[in-house]
Amino acid sequence: MKKTALIMAGGRGERFWPKSRKMLPKQFLSLTNDEKTMLQLTVERILPLVDMEDIYIVTNNYYKSLVLEQLPDLPNQNILCEPIGRNTAPCIGLGAVHVASKYEDALMIVLPSDHLIKSNELFMQTLSDACLVAMEDSNLVTIGITPNYPETGYGYIKINPSKKKRQAFCVEQFTEKPDYKTAQQYLESGRHFWNSGMFIWKVSSILYNMSTFLPDTYDGLMKIKDSIGSPKEFRVLEDIFPGFTSESIDYGIMEKADNIYILPGNFGWDDVGSWLAIERIKGTDGEKNTISGNTIAINTHNCIIEASDKLIAAVGIEDMIIVDTADATLICPKNKSGDIKKILEHLKKENNTKYL
Amino acid sequence: MKKTALIMAGGRGERFWPKSRKMLPKQFLSLTNDEKTMLQLTVERILPLVDMEDIYIVTNNYYKSLVLEQLPDLPNQNILCEPIGRNTAPCIGLGAVHVASKYEDALMIVLPSDHLIKSNELFMQTLSDACLVAMEDSNLVTIGITPNYPETGYGYIKINPSKKKRQAFCVEQFTEKPDYKTAQQYLESGRHFWNSGMFIWKVSSILYNMSTFLPDTYDGLMKIKDSIGSPKEFRVLEDIFPGFTSESIDYGIMEKADNIYILPGNFGWDDVGSWLAIERIKGTDGEKNTISGNTIAINTHNCIIEASDKLIAAVGIEDMIIVDTADATLICPKNKSGDIKKILEHLKKENNTKYL
Q: Is the pTM of this model over 0.90?
């Protein structure tokens, strides 16, 4: 069966300020690789399985030119722009009807555009296995990351280890972000996986489930589908999409549907959720620093320093994040990285849009 | 008697890196005042007492153009360039022979170019009092700053409180930088003052003492004096000055001569010796920060932040010094400010002269 991919690239991502900006969010940055952006790496990674003409990017009008610039080989019509963000269910629905208007049925691999994957080979293997499960019946398949520490910032998915289909386990429950003690129990149980936000299904399966659990959204999506390729396509999208209820695919479909399967992912995954991820990904030097750019660090330990051309001279500092860009420099202790959003709040309050 | 001034402006000053550079040392920076440099403030301060044409600046060839630029009203021939640094005794000697070649005798007020004085009025009063003492006999007068904390980084001068001449006390002893316990004793004694490096004497007095205590330097200075205004002036200076023994005026003359008097200075003095001085001078805000330039500081306390045009965004930091310039940014905890010189050592070692 034809394989297609839907890459979600509409996220704002404020946690990588000052490198990420309102008009340049995380997925368009080269955070984990010196040359390629996270979106480019995501596309490149899927190419052994999916033809470029079958890769769809869902984004919005603000970021369309960035997508065009970063993916010059992608057909223009494969860039789908949401008129307004309505969470993942309408986003995936929009992709689904575009695939459905092209193929009678096809496999859809839904991927975030801003995650790191270390082994492309193992990732391809996992996706291929997932496709086999997704092709049977109307199974909805997700990838669950095997946890290696009690992370409290992710949702978890609980499996039923005795109910398997090929390499996939039957999903017993989706759970919210746990507290630390619960996360430790999850880790020890061996029955909980991190929710990666990656999904594999047939277009027919997801649309069938939408018609069941999100019927209003489904009806709207069908009208959008009918307009695709016609002169009124853009106007129909602008009319209908903003009326969709904001809903995540997890809550709207996955937690309610039957036939939900999960494939354990052990390909080296990181959601690159904050500056702290950079040291996990890039590793540290002998002083336990992760340093790039024009930097002098003396008696400096456990720091993340991302310099650009300007010299960053650090003396005697510990456990800090320092990020320098052309017009702004961040200085923040690692244990306060969650407060970076307070800078953005302050800038918004002062209407200082230049740095947002 | 005619009053002249000799302002010493040849110092390198590495402690204000990255604002101070080899080609732009502290005295040429606006550290304490938004508009005027420390040298400009020093000249402006003395003008009620000394005519511009009687103010001499001792510097070197590297900084001559900076002096010309910052003091456009100063006569060109009043800028004296040492071919090489030989500490304060030859520096002051060079100034003295220039004054001696212009006036049969005159008062000389010798001042550093990089100190802060809060009350110009009280400072003028102190200098006027000092001039009265200096005019009598061949007295050598210095200004001693009344200590208000047990500073271990300054030399101290001990007075004999029972031997006074006008407002001045007879100097009993010059002492080296004390340890903390000794500094506390000095503070409690009421008999010790900080050595400010400011001196007042007649040209005849200092040259007489040089002939006694530094006879070789005196002989060379006389040859320089004879050449002043002649076509060979520059060549004689270049020939003779580098041969002088490097010697401070304190060790070479003041600790050995008789008739040394000290006037207590209570005009609000700061030697602006490091970035830490900036918060003493500029004061702190409600969060105990001293902040200037384009800055957002959130949950940030006890910090010195000198930004320029680029936005410095500090979140959750304490007790730090952050200084941003066009090509380099310093990040250093306050208690490690002495290590700023290690950056310069590193740059020198790497032959990275751009930032020196």
A: no
